[in-house]
Amino acid sequence: MNLILMIIGAVLVSVLIAFIIVKYLPLKLRWLPSILLLVLAIFLGVKIYDGIMEPIKFAKEKVEKYNPVIKSLKIIRDAEVKFYEVNGVYTKDKAGLIKFIDTAQLALTETKTVIEKVNKGGGIIVDEEVRVTDTIGYEPVLKYFKGRKYNDMFKVPGVEGTEFELEVGSVEKVQGLVVPTFRARTPKTGILKGMNKSLIKQELEAIESVQIKGEYVSVGSLEEVSTGGNWPPSYDRKDGAEKE
Predict the structure, then answer these.
(1) What is the tens place of the pLDDT at every residue in 51-103?
(2) Do residues 59 and 11 touch, judged by C-beta distance below 8 A?
(3) What is the mean pLDDT of the chain?
(4) Chain centroid to CA 27: how far?
(5) pTM for this structure?
(6) 6 band by pLDDT with thresholds 50, 70 and 90
């Protein structure tokens, strides 16, 4: 909007200068407004260029800022999933979740089909296939977090002194079936602080599928059963390329 107003203002000034040249200035002084118009044209050209490049620069810089934030959210997500596998619930205890990674063990199971004799009554006994799951060993949760900075996973990268919000809840998936949920998130405003304010405002209102929707960067949900993030697939592809 500011750029449009500036262009309109520059056009009006140019028209005014041209009118003054024709109406009042003698021929020998007409070079002065010509120089002024040239300076105005250069200034306007620079402003138009900046106005075009600013959103492009913003789009590039926001991705650079979001990437480490999403990387940390993925670690939190993976930690919560492992915690759920062991305990059947999620946790909002940040220190406890870090300790869990350091100390907990995951059961290794094996499922096989065996034949059991089943009494159907009346002296009738039949063989039936039954699936049996046995624990065959244990492995440390820490195995899944080697090379990942899980000790700092709750610190929001690039936002000094700020930690991710971590909440747990539950959702009734079907009548009588209550499923645990979790959500970790941080506001976009902190991540994008210092950037163009009008573009930040647009970013907070993003709803397109190729953008991070809403005012937060988040993973999980308190309203539905989900362990996904609200970022588009492009951030996952970038993370995959880095691992390769």
Answers:
(1) 778 889 999 999 999 999 999 999 999 999 999 999 999 999 999 999 999 99
(2) no
(3) 85
(4) 63
(5) 0.75
(6) low
CA atoms within 13 A on the CB side of 124: 4
pLDDT grade, residue 241 (50/70/90)?
very low
Q: How far is Cα 192 from Cα 171, in angstroms, rounded to an integer?
A: 32
How remote is the C-alpha of 190 from its chain's centroid? 13
**Residue written as tokens 């539950």?**
170
Look at residues 81, 77, 85 and name the one whose alpha carbon lies nearest to residue 105: 85
Structure tokens at 209: 């599928």
Burial 43-57 (b: 16+ CB within 10 A, else e): ebeeeeeeeeeeeee
Q: For residues 210 and 167, what is the distance between their CA atoms, to the nearest angstrom?
A: 26
Residue 39's alpha-carbon distances to 29, 43, 221, in angstroms, are: 17, 6, 55
Cβ neighbours around 82 below 10 Å, total: 19
Q: How far apart are CA 177 and CA 162, in angstroms?
A: 36
